[in-house]
Amino acid sequence: MALGIADYLPIGLLTTVAHLGGTVPLPIAFACLIGYTAVTGGIALLAGRKRDLT
């Protein structure tokens, strides 16, 4: 179970948001998902600026 953090990984958070039996409180699940999205988007922007994507 990934050292007890499996519920906070994206798939565990999606399960909670979809009310499929997750154990993470709903506001925390949404906040973590927004955080994951922001971090992933930021990394994509940084990677894209270093390369010529045209």
Features:
elongated, single chain, mainly alpha, 2 helices
Quick description:
The chain crosses the membrane at residues 28-48. The chain is mainly α. It has 2 helices and no strands.
Describe the structure.
The chain crosses the membrane at residues 28-48. Keywords: Membrane, Transmembrane, Transmembrane helix. The protein is an all-alpha fold and 54 residues long. The protein has one domain (5-53). The chain has helices at 10-17, 26-50. Helix 1 (10-17) crosses helix 2. The radius of gyration is 14 Å and the shape is elongated. The termini are far apart.
Helices and strands in order:
Elements: H1 10-17, H2 26-50
Helix pairs in contact: 1-2
Q: Tell me the number of structural domains.
A: 1
SS strand fraction = under 5%
Q: How far from one another are the termini?
A: 42 Å
The SS-based structural class is mainly alpha
Inertia-based shape: elongated
Low-confidence stretches: none
Q: Could you give the order of the helices and strands?
A: HH
Please tally the helical runs, counting DSSP H or I stretches of 4 or more residues.
Answer: 2
What value does the average pLDDT take?
83
Radius of gyration, rounded? 14 Å
Q: Report helical residue fraction.
A: 55-70%
| Sheet of most strands | none
Would you count the extended β strands for me?
A: 0
